[in-house]
Amino acid sequence: MCRIAVLDDDRNWCMALQRFLKNTFEVSIFNDATSLIEDLIQDVRQYDLIMVDLSLPPDAYGEIDGRKFIRYIREVLLEPPILVLVTAFIGKNELNSGEIFCKEADAFLAKDAGLDEISRQLQQLLVNR
Asked: Boundaries of each Response regulatory domain copy (predicted)?
C-alpha cells in the first residue's frame, strides 16, 4: 500500500481525507511543516507522495509555510511527488498554470475538487513517478 503524507493545518479536513483514503493508501497527517520534516529526517524515503496545503501558515517558529516547505523538500529530496492543494478561490486557468504558485510542485488541485478527484490525482501521480 502506498504511503502518503498530508501536510495541512485543517485538522477536520485531514481526518475526512484520511478516512476517505484509508482503503487505498496509508495516510499520515501532519498539521505543521516542522513535524513532517522531523519525520522525514528519520527516513526520507518513507512516503510515496506528499500532499501539501499551499496556504499552510508558518510553523510555531514562524519560519516554514507551505511554499517554503515545498521548496525545502525539493532541495533535499528529488522524490516523492508533491501534490499541492490550493484554496477554492483560485481560478481554473491559474490552477492549470501552477508554476505561478510554486514551480517545485508536481501537480496542483483545488481543495474543493472533491475527495474522488483528489484520490484520482494521487493515483495518477503515483503511476507517473
From this structure: 3-126
